[in-house]
Design goal:
The chain has 9 helices and 12 strands. It is of the alpha/beta class. The strands form 3 sheets. A 7-stranded parallel sheet has the order 1-12-11-10-2-5-6, with helices on both faces. The chain has a 3-stranded antiparallel sheet with strand order 8-7-9, covered by helices on one side. The chain binds 2'-O-acetyl adenosine-5-diphosphoribose (OAD).
């Protein structure tokens, strides 16, 4: 059973201060205070829907194969929501953590680019990036920042072929090598944070389990208990934007 806390205690602070290798997994909840909707949550685990379809269907390998234009409309809508969004205190605290530890790895399931916007340098994006496109013909990737899209689907800068969002859809594998690096970091870590994720989507949700097996302490930060709470040593119950900066406060 995990210890449930609502603020960073002196004991937790000293665990943080003494950590040598830190890994962090973030999910949609880290961006919630920036105004980005999460996929699930609110107690009943109801999933986000758009035009009456659940995200699991909109962001799916099946739909990109049959109706890529609809997939782009859905991503265009999400890109539109992100254009006016800023990183919050949670993102900024993590960027600062990176500077504090010699071995620090930030792994995110988010595609919104807000960690980098906050100043994080080394970000392992498990699910890709919403501001990147990938050519369906020649597979080259390129930045595609215009919002709304000028053309659907956008055309490849190299070969003019049709492109798709460079994100991982349900039913697809993660990009080569990224998960392996995340797993190595989880295995190395003596402190592993699980922040703002419902921890139901694999393989990402397996990372805290790997870390736990390899001896790391697990600290969860979430306003709700989740599927991973049972392996957490500490669940910090509350908002990331309020809790994460507490680790940076001078005490004493
Ligand atoms: P979810 O929407 O499943 O979970 C968001 C979590 O954030 C919930 O557990 C909330 O309780 C928590 N939360 C809400 N507000 C928070 C706050 N202010 N601070 C901290 N936590 C907060 O999002 P993910 O777990 O990221 O995949 O979802 C995983 C994957 O499912 C996504 O990457 C996406 C999605 O479908 C793909 O698109 C492939």
């Amino acid at each position: 059973m995990s210890t449930v806390l609502t603020h960073v205690t002196d004991e937790l602070q000293s665990i943080f201060d003494r950590a040598r290798s830190v890994a962090v997994l973030t999910g949609a909840g880290i961006s919630a205070e920036s105004g980005v909707p999460t996929f699930r949550g609110g107690g009943d685990s109801e999933i986000w829907t758009w035009r009456g379809r659940p995200v699991t269907e909109l962001s799916s390998a099946e739909l990109i194969a049959t109706d890529p234009q609809l997939v782009w409309e859905w991503f265009d809508y999400r890109r539109g929501m992100l254009t006016s969004v800023e990183p919050n205190a949670g993102h900024r605290a993590l960027a600062e953590w990176e500077r504090r530890f010699e071995d620090f790895t930030l792994v995110t399931q988010n595609i919104d680019d807000l960690h980098r916007a906050a100043g994080s340098l080394n970000v392992l994006e498990l699910h890709g990036n919403i501001w990147r496109a990938r050519c369906l013909r020649c597979a080259s990737t390129f930045e595609a920042r215009e919002s709304p899209l000028e053309e659907n689907p956008p055309r490849c800068l190299a070969c003019n072929g049709p492109a798709r969002p460079d994100v991982v859809l349900f039913g697809e594998l993660l990009p080569d090598g990224v998960f392996e690096r995340a797993e190595e970091a989880a295995a190395r870590a003596d402190l592993f944070f699980v922040i703002g994720t419902s921890a139901v989507v694999y393989p990402a949700a397996g990372l805290p389990i790997t870390a736990k097996r390899r001896g790391a302490r697990i600290i969860e930060v979430n306003p709700e208990m989740t599927d991973i709470s049972f392996i957490a040593d500490v669940t910090l119950l509350g908002k990331a934007g309020e809790l994460l900066p507490q680790f940076l406060k001078e005490r004493g």
